[in-house]
Task: structure prediction
Amino acid sequence: MAADITESVPESPWWGWAPFTPGGALKPATRAVLAERLGIDPGAEIAAPPPEPTAAELPESALDAEALGALAAAVATGAVSQGAAERMRHAAGKHTPDLIRQRSGALLAVPDAVVSPGETGEIAGVLAACVAHDIAVVPFGGGSSVVGGVTPLRGAHRAVIALDLTRLDALVELNEVDRTATFEAGIRGPALERALAERGFTLGHIPQSHQQATLGGYAATRSAGQASTGYGAIAELITALTLETPSGTLELGGRAPASAAGPDLKHLAIGSEGTIGVITTVTVAIRPRVTAKTYGAWAFPSFEAGARAIRALAQDGAKGDLPDVCRLSDEEETELTLAQSEGAPVRLLRRWLRSRGIDTPALLLGVWEGTDADTKRRHRRAAKLLKAHGAVSATTRPAEAWDRGRFSSPRLRDELLTIGVMVDTLETAASWTRLAETHRAVAEGIRGALAGGPTAADPPPAAVPAAVPAAVPAAVPAAVPVLGAGPTDPPPNAAAPALPTDPLPCAVQGHISHVYRYGASLYYTFIAAAEADPIAQYERVKAAANAAILASGATITHHHAVGTEHAAQLPAEIGELGVDVLRAVKRELDPAGIMNPGKLV
Amino acid sequence: MAADITESVPESPWWGWAPFTPGGALKPATRAVLAERLGIDPGAEIAAPPPEPTAAELPESALDAEALGALAAAVATGAVSQGAAERMRHAAGKHTPDLIRQRSGALLAVPDAVVSPGETGEIAGVLAACVAHDIAVVPFGGGSSVVGGVTPLRGAHRAVIALDLTRLDALVELNEVDRTATFEAGIRGPALERALAERGFTLGHIPQSHQQATLGGYAATRSAGQASTGYGAIAELITALTLETPSGTLELGGRAPASAAGPDLKHLAIGSEGTIGVITTVTVAIRPRVTAKTYGAWAFPSFEAGARAIRALAQDGAKGDLPDVCRLSDEEETELTLAQSEGAPVRLLRRWLRSRGIDTPALLLGVWEGTDADTKRRHRRAAKLLKAHGAVSATTRPAEAWDRGRFSSPRLRDELLTIGVMVDTLETAASWTRLAETHRAVAEGIRGALAGGPTAADPPPAAVPAAVPAAVPAAVPAAVPVLGAGPTDPPPNAAAPALPTDPLPCAVQGHISHVYRYGASLYYTFIAAAEADPIAQYERVKAAANAAILASGATITHHHAVGTEHAAQLPAEIGELGVDVLRAVKRELDPAGIMNPGKLV
Result:
């Protein structure tokens, strides 16, 4: 059974991606891998999250009666809330430092109010009220940003509100002739797919955040779904959108499938992260509902050999042969995946691969979606080309297992963070030419940073709140010793303690998950015992990864977006002049600077 | 034999798309069609163009010695020319009103000098000199704009130069692993394809202007090639570009095949028409050189039936089954095409189609490009689907004939304009839902405007120079009487003279030539006897077509761009606020406003 993409999950803003499960969802095999391979003893039970703050503990709202009145008048069919639970629920997205702070019991900054329009037509009035009363506006959809995109920063303004868009969740129009659907921007992934499925269609944009994220959030962050290799990323799926700005309404696109009427301004709104206006409706290209999936998995002798094969498939395969979901794990990710599924089938698989000369496999998963005849034909042709490039079949089971569990791994982060495990993901994308080098550099950068420990030469960034470390759960083990980076690029502290041979002090696993003709994404999960100051540890890893990414000429983010997390790296990515252009657009559309201050630029 | 896309044609800026051919290239069959069906007697021989103006006839350059010196210093490896021939050669693109004026002997405005950098690195210095000396800059590539995009307007500035980029024609890098190629922006279509062909690749972007246009021009105008259905339009083919602006250099794209690092600023440069900077290098995605083409042609009982069939192919066919070149002519274009090829095969074809119940066929041409096995497989599957939608095979000959003659029809315009025939093309694109209605409205708008004659209720726009009409060649026949529009939307002058039954006073033929999942382009050729004031006639037609396009909710241009021609319609297309955004970007990158004034915004 593939995961049901129309299934809603209960909201769980305080507990990451899914509601807290007493006892936790950590599989015994995962516990064993953590203990035996990484020297991390996840002995403690998954801890319940600390109680939410009470109203008395929250700072008083900075909004005066006049401002509140103006906001309430603007959302006649909606609501303005200053309740503690509502304000807390809009204090953060899923940014790991925020989750760590929340779990430590630290009080995050909260918006002064949560404004929830009941109709898209009310948003212009909200923005006007915020300009009049000097209030910063943080557009808030699913709250699934992992880069601080919804952090309630007030900038230079008197107050800050979260503009919660999730009541705006209607299907406005479904055009079966054009194969397009217009939704209000606050609709979440499962509801969107449900509305389309009822009419026989799908969007096919299913990022890992799908169960909570909203369509407007996808657009605002230039998101890519797990099947973007087949369906295209959100920028390719959007045919039109409406952007409500403090300077007025922009209706972008929608007249034609293509146009030469000047620059395509849709692309200024896509990826704008709420800094120039609020995306209120989005029109997307839709496709017939998936009636069949064909799965395939293949092993390669190395990650680089696998990457060469999927490049050949992307560049020389017939159109459509590339699977819609195309994921190539590196050797470490493959090994950790197999280790968590040990048993007779995995033993058999290992033996089969060794017999074919593959000792440290890199596993490729493919899912072809569509109709039965179509997916089988595409799969057959792709398999032939992959085998010609050294692929060895690994049955269809690993791909089926991925599809079943596609939404569960982000939940694992929440579990692990409570038992002293530092775990997070980061990502980039690079051209094929630079892919292998980028992959090595980023993985080594992360390893070096984790190995460096809290005494590393590079001091951690200053942003860590001093109050946090003490509040981290007691189960945090002592910092583990060094894992040296590869021989080509030793970390600054390579002269420090000798490398332990077993167990390894961290895991840095990578994969390709979005494939293009001229390159691919790279996605990393790093796991280590949490240090006494886990936020400093996190920031050390991110700084090393960012430096490696930029030095490799790759992009600072393929699909997580910029938010507060990558804002410092944006000038290196698009140039100071590029940032100036974004600022000029912002001055025009948001002259008072109220829109999502502190994000992107 | 398909047209050779690597073949250069001699430059012919003064004579439209190809050098003047004494005697002209008008086929007897075309003459017969004009005479018998349109009542146009192209009796006169194609006239030689009037002599080019001499230096003495040109206005004196407004550049003083100091400004000239600064320009010359900026282009150490290039040239600054004030020669009459050079200035005339940069006076206009291929905008029909300009061609009419040139052929009438009228003197067009000319730039004060032509500056031709020898290296891309010199462009920054040229822009600095122009800012310092208050000189407007018109970037000039192939000079193939049909919308006044290279008209040497000086705006509020002291002088204007044409910045000729055609010396910048190097292949900078070809990356066979990434399948990308970086070129200097001034390389023309055939030279670009030659450079790629030598290495086994193609860009596949072949607009009708290909033999003269440059890659930078493609990017600046958001161009679409004739095979864009398969290869994608230029916006999809560009992976990176460099934009030199008066405020500095923007390096856009190139780090990765996709990114979520804020809005994609490439899309601000693509379609910017020289108004914010000069595109100096462009990196494009390339594909293996075409080794086989498969052709197909089918007739449908009507244009609408054909449109339904290609929509089904675009939406429900397997990926790649849609032909790379996909053109569906309406009934009138089909009839005029067949009429120009009368003979035994066409008679046989007509009989065969009638036997299948098709009396007024709409002809679909398809070209599948790639390898032999691949194109045949795609063609076979597409043919099956098309037949299920009522297509009747019309042999492969019409598609082969189109491919042979793909560059010749624009040349016909130049011939016809000298013998009293008003002929031009215009285009739009619309969603499938609105396609048929848009097609009818635009065609009827054009017919009504041509029928209205110079005494129509709507006065022609005021921009027509009074000196021109008298200079039009003597062969211009008297204005022809009215052709009524269809019953659903009578033109304002429907109460005017009764409809003639034979011959028709004008031809308005349309086709789809770029197909997308959610809509298609619409391209029109209109032909009528030229009136005494052909520019007023042209502008009447354009005004009617523009009004019909905008009222239908379609785009004012699918691939011809904005230039001076559609600047007045841009606010209707993207909104006043959209125009404000473009202006804000321009203020940031071109604070002195020297870049291509009067175009786009």
